[in-house]
Specification:
Length: 138
Amino acid sequence: MGKDTLRIKEITVDNPFLKSGDTLLLKVVITNGDGTYWMGLSLRDPLGRWFDVPSQEITLSSQEQTMTFKWRVPNSTDFVSGDFSARVAIWDRAPEEPDPVRIEYVDLEKVATIFRHIDDFDHLDYRVWRVIEKRTPG
């Protein structure tokens, strides 16, 4: 077993509905690997901007192994709400190094729906909402 048979078997997300400050947990099951590799995760927002999660080294010596990525949703004013896609990849070395070789990857559409802000309507964030006069119908 080696690079030729290495595969991403399954990807699961702990909670697909998140808001700023929450942590996305994404689990990846890898099969048929033997050796040391690097796993990478990148998330793409609705505007096409990429967020790279730090890559992780993984040493495989069995038929199947699970790796968990954690990504804290940014809490910034330029962060946009919506459906996020993702790419999970396996590399022969850290993707931050020069000339890494990507061995395997999987693209996921709508891996999570992430909101910049959620109000509960009991405690409105008045930096986001504007209060107008109460009006009655008619």
